[in-house]
Amino acid sequence: MVNRNLIRGLDLTEEEWQQELNEALEGEPAEEIAWTTQEMELNRIVEGTVLRVEGDVVLVDVGYKSEGIIFHNEWDEGEKLPEPGTKVKVLIEDVEDIHGLVDDSRGMITLSKRKAEKIEAWMKVMETVREGDVVTGVATRKIKGGLLVDIGVNVFLPASQVDVRRPADIGDYLGRTIQCLVLKIDDARRNIVVSRRALIEAERAEKKAQLLANIEVGQRRKGVVKNIADFGAFVDLGGIDGLLHITDMSWGRINHPSEVVSIDQELEVQILHIDHEKEKIALGLKQRMPSPWENVEEKYAIDSRIKGKVVNVMSYGAFVKLEEGIEGLVHISEMSWTRRISHPSEMVQPEDEIEVVVLNINKDKQEISLGMKQTQENPWDRVADRYPIGSTVKGTIRNLTNYGAFIEIEEGIDGLLHVSDMSWTRKISHPNEIVEKSQEIECRVLSVDQDRRRIALGMKQMADDPWAADIPGKYQPGQIISGPVTKITNFGVFVGLENGLEGLLHISELADHKVEDPEEVVKVGEVIEVKVLRVDPEERKIGLSRKRVEWAEEAEAAEGREEKSSSAAAAELKGGVGDGNGPLFKPINSEPAPSDEPAGSAESEGE
Length: 607
Hints:
Blueprint: H1 14-24, E1 45-54, E2 57-61, E3 68-71, E4 87-96, E5 108-112, H2 113-128, E6 134-143, E7 146-150, E8 154-158, E9 177-186, E10 191-195, H3 196-214, E11 220-229, E12 232-236, E13 241-245, E14 266-275, E15 280-284, H4 296-299, E16 305-314, E17 317-323, E18 326-331, E19 353-362, E20 367-371, H5 383-386, E21 392-400, E22 404-410, E23 413-418, E24 440-449, E25 454-458, H6 470-474, E26 480-488, E27 492-498, E28 501-506, E29 527-536, E30 541-545, H7 553-572
Parallel strand pairs: 3-5, 13-15, 18-20, 23-25, 28-30
Antiparallel strand pairs: 1-2, 1-4, 2-3, 4-5, 6-7, 6-9, 7-8, 9-10, 11-12, 11-14, 12-13, 14-15, 16-17, 16-19, 17-18, 19-20, 21-22, 21-24, 22-23, 24-25, 26-27, 26-29, 27-28, 29-30
């Protein structure tokens, strides 16, 4: 009866089993053997006497009228052939009956000494071996799917049952004496299947139970490295494997566990954690030695200068090894005071030895912040001395924004030229109307803020302010001038006067009649004649009128008196029944009285 429980761990189908067993029998047929020697029958084992050696056969008397023959190849190479009179057990393989009479004296009997020995060995083994027994033998031959192990007879050891982890080459076991557990005995086919793995697992299960009962966190145990993965190594503690994670191998940086351990290496490890339910154990190798972070604050004081080696460069910074197990990070922002760095590799490379300053230490997280730029003088500390207010500087436009241009006056030090400081007279919507990227220009320093690292520059300040004297002296109220329409808005028209200087022709001053849309009256680019109404140096505005160009002085004066009268009448139009603090009736959606002064710029009209 086959013990199915013993072969449950073998991952083979019935057909695969049969194929492997046939190979284990070296191709011999599994005939039924008759063990009695009372009659001359085929496939019977009998005892005979060696008569003589002739040619390539040995003649044997087996008690039959004819002699039996055994071929020389029945003896192993180098084995001495038997002397006449030697007793030998043989298997009757074939009887050649020439005339159909089995007792014919000329009949030839073919005998096999080797098969007789195998059958006797099988019978001897079967007297002592049962399924579930432990047997010992030598691995003698590698066949497809496993090994043949000689325990007196050849038994089959499948490759999957050689060890707990299938070896890379089972041929390494040839010639070794090994112990196995008998999984299956097929008496009819004279097949025996054994497993070394089942025996090992049974032993490990017993050792595992003992180990889990005695092991404790903090203990030191010896083990053997059985497997290595990218994340760590599995160490056999004797019955159970523990995981030695890569982060617990060394206080220093490790790229792969194979840098520290190797297969079959014996280690002394420390127990870090035990999960009895899942039967998992976490191990540590570095914990056998004190952590270099214990007195890190004493060794590396804040603001101290130290030397280290660059071990890794990332997009955000570089890691610097200060000693075995201690690394600090130089962030990309701490590499240079002035240089614009896209990647830390522009400054350092692995294996570079550099000087750094300790900026901060987080002992709990085992982090140290380092700085490279702190080893050099900060150029912003003396920028006010080098660029005093009012001084003239030259620089290259590095970048343009909606509000201005950044000008590099030296490496890493930029000044901002605001759009409002580009021209005294011209209204600028974007800096590209005046300057372009990479252009070299000259500016004046307006202010320096060392704490915020800002320098304000001005381009218009390189010349005198025309609003101080030139414009008020050149443009007087009542003066008739002409210029092109530069811009049309819903509240009026801007007229170009000179060098970007513009005056505002309010919609109310376009024509004698009421104008709803200025584009119905004038077009952009059209040159028109206008009269200067007012010049305001403080507000930097010039008010213009088109409808008054042909007016006589009396008509214009009358218009002025009428406007003033209307304003005074509106102010006096109040009444009440009480204290006289407000109008008797408050109009809905009332608007303020129109001013006699048109707005002078886009800013005043909400542009």
